[in-house]
Structures are given as structure tokens and as C-alpha cells.
Design a protein that fits this description.
Elements lengths: L62 H7 L9 E2 L10 H4 L4 H4 L2 H9 L6 E8 L8 E6 L4 H14 L3 E4 L2 E9 L9 E10 L7 E10 L2 E9 L9 H14 L2
Antiparallel strand pairs: 1-2, 2-3, 3-8, 4-5, 5-6, 6-7, 7-8
Helix pairs in contact: 4-5
Length: 249
């Protein structure tokens, strides 16, 4: 495969996402929530490239299979960066969060976005100057019903972490359910606004769409400075198409 895959390493280089087919974690009807800033853009038709062949029933994609299921060249506005490599979680990176870590919302949020507890995970970077195009794609797989559990834990963590200090910056987190047609029920639009101490305005903004598709979670994100539009939904829908086809959903 020609896709460039790279190791996660900064705020944007964290991953998670979610979607079910029918069913999945129920959405909370009450509780703290902050609406994300950008309004959903109208999805455009996805690229007409071949979708992956379905795997065996109950298959949990490994790193090699996830690399095959990731967006391919021509399926997103950006081009893949050169010189990447497959990101395979090591024993420390992949260990599940402890009960104590899960009860600390901000710690849980970062850990889940960094794919803690995943069976396998890859990341993919894009070189693009087009506003709204994704700059990174994270894709992970989980055994059994763990993907649905992780997505529910992420939702809870986001609700409890409206802001956090990270690397000397204040990070403000806003999110909302993304109900646009074509997206699975477990889909969140997240905006992370980074502000340096003493700065009159944001120094960086990360928009991401996190969605669960069966046993997989995908997290596509774009980064920039204000004013910055929300990430385009088209490449996310194409990634969802690929994951659905591969799992027979």
C-alpha cells in the first residue's frame, strides 16, 4: 500500500473515534455538554475508488489490515506525506487505562485519544494547504465490544474536561454529536483551542471528527489558527465507507 503511516506524537497525533452499525453506546440525554463551534458542512459525494474486501466474520483488524483500510490516495483533498512508517502500539502505549485514570476526565480523554487499550492502531498524515482538509487520520481496532465501551468512556471524559493545561497552554475542549446523514450514531465533532499564557487569542485550533464503525474507531483531524473552518466531512465519510465495507456492515 502506498499510504504513508506515521507514529503519533503531539496533541493532534492522538486518536479515537467511533461508530456503530445498528445499536451502540446510548447517548446521554442530560449532563454537561458544550456544543462544538463549527456548523456541519454539507457532505459531498465520496470518491469512487474500490472499497476493501470484507474480512472474516468477527475479525479484529491488526496493524497490517488497518493500514489497508485507511484512506487511500485520491480519497481526500490532501496528499500523503513521504517518509512515514506504520505506528504499532508498544506495550506501554497500548496498555488500558487503569480505573483511577478513567475517573480523572482529562487524563482519560488524552489516554483514549492516544489509543490506550487498542488491539492495533495506525496513523496517517496528509500534506495539504486546503482549509478544512484533514492533516492526520488515526485508525484503531478493539476486541469484542471494547470499541463501544471506549467510545462511551471518551464521551464521558469530554463532558468532564472542558479545559486542561497541556505543555504550558490552556486547551479548551468543545464537542457535539454529529447527526448529519451518513454518519454512525457514535460520532463526535470535537474542537480543541490552544491558548498560550498571556496571549490575547488562540495560538492553534484542532478540529476533529471521531467515529466508531463496528470494532474500529477513526479520528480525522485538521489543525490551524483562527479563523479556521471545521474539518471537511467528505474524507471522514469515505473512511467510514471503507470500514463498513471491510466489516460487512
Amino acid at each position: 500500500m502506498s499510504a504513508a503511516l506515521v507514529t503519533a506524537g503531539c496533541l493532534l497525533v492522538s486518536a479515537c473515534g467511533g461508530t456503530p452499525a445498528p445499536g451502540g453506546a446510548d447517548r446521554p440525554t442530560s449532563g454537561p455538554r458544550t456544543s462544538a463551534a463549527p456548523a456541519p458542512s454539507k457532505p459531498a459525494p465520496t470518491a469512487a475508488l474500490p472499497l476493501p474486501t470484507p474480512g472474516a466474520a468477527g475479525e479484529i483488524p491488526d496493524t497490517t489490515r488497518l493500514a489497508e483500510l485507511a484512506l487511500q490516495p485520491g480519497e481526500t483533498a490532501g496528499v500523503l506525506e513521504d517518509g512515514g512508517s506504520t505506528h504499532s502500539l508498544d506495550e506501554v502505549e497500548g496498555r488500558p487505562l487503569s480505573p483511577a485514570e478513567l475517573t480523572a476526565p482529562c487524563t482519560a480523554m488524552w489516554g483514549l485519544l492516544r489509543q490506550r487499550g487498542a488491539h492495533a492502531a495506525v496513523s496517517q498524515t496528509f500534506d495539504t494547504q486546503e482549509p478544512g482538509s484533514p492533516t492526520v487520520n488515526f485508525l484503531s481496532s478493539y476486541p469484542g465490544t471494547d470499541a463501544a465501551t471506549v467510545f462511551g468512556q471518551l464521551r464521558t471524559a469530554l463532558a468532564g474536561c472542558p479545559s486542561v493545561e497541556e505543555d504550558g497552554r490552556t486547551v479548551t475542549i468543545r464537542y457535539e454529536d454529529l447527526d448529519t446523514a451518513g454518519f454512525p450514531e457514535d460520532t463526535l465533532r470535537i474542537r480543541m483551542t490552544m491558548t498560550d499564557a498571556g496571549s490575547p487569542g488562540p495560538s492553534e485550533v484542532i478540529d476533529r471528527i471521531v467515529t466508531r464503525v463496528g470494532v474500529c474507531i477513526t479520528d480525522l483531524g485538521a489543525t490551524g489558527t483562527e479563523p479556521y473552518p471545521g474539518i471537511s466531512e467528505t474524507p471522514v465519510l469515505r473512511q467510514i465507507d471503507r470500514l463498513r465495507a471491510a466489516q460487512g456492515l
